[in-house]
Automatic annotation (TrEMBL):
<feature type="transmembrane region" description="Helical">
    <location>
        <begin position="74"/>
        <end position="93"/>
    </location>
</feature>
<feature type="transmembrane region" description="Helical">
    <location>
        <begin position="7"/>
        <end position="30"/>
    </location>
</feature>
<dbReference type="InterPro" id="IPR011701">
    <property type="entry name" value="MFS"/>
</dbReference>
<keyword id="KW-0812">Transmembrane</keyword>
<keyword id="KW-1133">Transmembrane helix</keyword>
<feature type="domain" description="Major facilitator superfamily (MFS) profile">
    <location>
        <begin position="7"/>
        <end position="390"/>
    </location>
</feature>
<dbReference type="InterPro" id="IPR005829">
    <property type="entry name" value="Sugar_transporter_CS"/>
</dbReference>
<protein>
    <submittedName>
        <fullName>MFS transporter</fullName>
    </submittedName>
</protein>
<feature type="transmembrane region" description="Helical">
    <location>
        <begin position="205"/>
        <end position="225"/>
    </location>
</feature>
<dbReference type="InterPro" id="IPR050171">
    <property type="entry name" value="MFS_Transporters"/>
</dbReference>
<feature type="transmembrane region" description="Helical">
    <location>
        <begin position="363"/>
        <end position="383"/>
    </location>
</feature>
<dbReference type="InterPro" id="IPR036259">
    <property type="entry name" value="MFS_trans_sf"/>
</dbReference>
<dbReference type="Pfam" id="PF07690">
    <property type="entry name" value="MFS_1"/>
</dbReference>
<feature type="transmembrane region" description="Helical">
    <location>
        <begin position="133"/>
        <end position="154"/>
    </location>
</feature>
<keyword id="KW-0813">Transport</keyword>
<feature type="transmembrane region" description="Helical">
    <location>
        <begin position="301"/>
        <end position="324"/>
    </location>
</feature>
<feature type="transmembrane region" description="Helical">
    <location>
        <begin position="336"/>
        <end position="357"/>
    </location>
</feature>
Length: 394
């Protein structure tokens, strides 16, 4: 009797990408919510930051859950949380459901980050491990970029701009669930209904000298991603006069596309060169973004997005590799999880600061000040890494 066809790692990567797309779907729509509900730019950044709270909570309490419960149950739970988030946005009647939707989205992203990455790598044959690693990276960043692009196009050129993007994502989640049913379970000795095991942040003494600059580089890079996914549409509308939501979604998409390209280039340079160079390319991108705000230039903003995203991708992949290499094998997973906690703090707290500064300085000065502070951090980290290079991967 012929065996049923089982899908491989590309299908797992597709599930990963669909799930991550939902986490950035509201990005071009925040301006519409502001008009409908009448809240401030600060509240936009707070609503966005709730997502990072959800991700960090999962990383600290259930980072290894898919290793114990199995990949498919965890990914199914993540898909259900994504669907619940979309329903919160569909039926929103004020800030409470927006907050709930973002929190559920963060929980889903936290589960996808570990479970889907592991599933993609588990399903790859030995000769395709390198391709699978890039597939997981591309699914993560590509999915994050496709969310704003899809929402912007639908909101600008289709009816019901605050409903159709989430209805479309619900349909995509149903497709992802069908793909998931075709994936084999790769965890053999699963626990029955394991309880989460809070781990906190674990950084072994042997890895701390490498962890600190790598984590700060991750913080700076994710701050750039947070800026674009939280307030870039407001910058476009209020500073540059660009109110086309499809353009806003495309600009955010360009950052994540460039990040994926940077991560693809990183291994060719090696960790020692990619990490400091990524920091300096990130600085150049931030300078271009600041210049675009001062000159009110959309082309400069796009150039800054692509340059900064490339630098973020270069530094990010090299930072994860260096942290994983420096950590003892028994504590490698926990150390990498601690790195992601710092990175996701970078995607949330700085943009809330931008929202707060906007109330006193205005959007353009707040954006320029933000880019200057993050650029200074990236410069200091890059100089430190040039003096003390990170270890190459074993």
């Amino acid at each position: 009797m012929p065996q049923p066809v089982r899908l491989g790692y590309p299908a797992a990567a597709a599930v990963f990408a669909i799930g991550m797309a939902g986490t950035t779907l509201p990005t071009p729509l925040y301006g519409l919510y502001r008009e409908e509900l009448g809240f401030s730019e600060l509240m936009v950044t707070v609503v966005f930051a709730v997502y990072a709270v959800g991700v960090i909570t999962v990383l600290l309490t259930a980072g290894d859950y898919s290793d114990r419960a199995g990949r498919r149950p965890v990914l199914l739970l993540a898909l259900l949380l994504s669907a619940a988030s979309a329903l919160c946005f569909l039926f929103e009647g004020g800030l409470p459901l927006l907050f709930a939707g973002r929190l559920l989205s963060g929980f889903a992203a936290g589960l996808f980050s570990g479970g889907a990455t592991a599933a993609v790598l588990d399903l790859a044959p030995p000769e395709a491990r390198a391709r699978a690693g890039f597939a997981a990276t591309a699914a993560n960043m590509g999915g994050l970029g496709c969310g704003p692009l899809l929402a912007g196009l639908l909101a600008e050129y289709a009816p019901r701009p605050l409903a159709l993007p989430f209805l479309t994502h619900l349909a995509l989640l149903a497709l992802a669930a069908l793909l998931l049913l075709g994936l084999p379970e790769t965890v053999e000795n699963r626990e029955h209904r394991p309880r989460p095991r809070p781990q906190g942040m674990i950084v072994p003494p042997a890895a701390r000298a490498v962890f600190v600059p790598a984590a700060l580089a991750g913080f700076a890079g994710f701050s750039l991603l947070g800026l674009f996914t939280a307030v870039a549409p407001s910058f476009l509308a209020e500073t540059l006069g660009v109110r086309n939501l499809a353009v806003a979604g495309a600009v955010v998409f360009s950052v994540f596309l460039a990040s994926t390209a940077g991560q693809l280039l990183s291994p060719r340079l090696g960790v020692r060169r990619a990490l400091p160079r990524g920091c300096f390319v990130l600085v150049l991108g931030l300078a271009l973004i600041a210049a675009s705000l001062l000159a009110e230039s959309l082309p400069l903003l796009i150039l800054g997005a692509v340059t900064g995203g490339t630098g973020q991708g270069l530094a990010f992949r090299a930072a994860v590799t260096s942290v994983g290499t420096a950590a003892p094998a028994a504590q490698r997973g926990a150390t990498v999880s601690a790195f992601f906690v710092v990175a996701y703090t970078g995607i949330s707290l700085p943009v809330v600061g931008v929202g707060a500064l906007t109330r006193w300085l205005g959007l353009r000065p707040a954006g320029v000040l933000f880019t200057a502070i993050v650029a200074l951090l990236a410069v200091l980290v890059g100089l430190r890494l040039r003096r003390t290079p990170a270890p190459e991967a074993a």
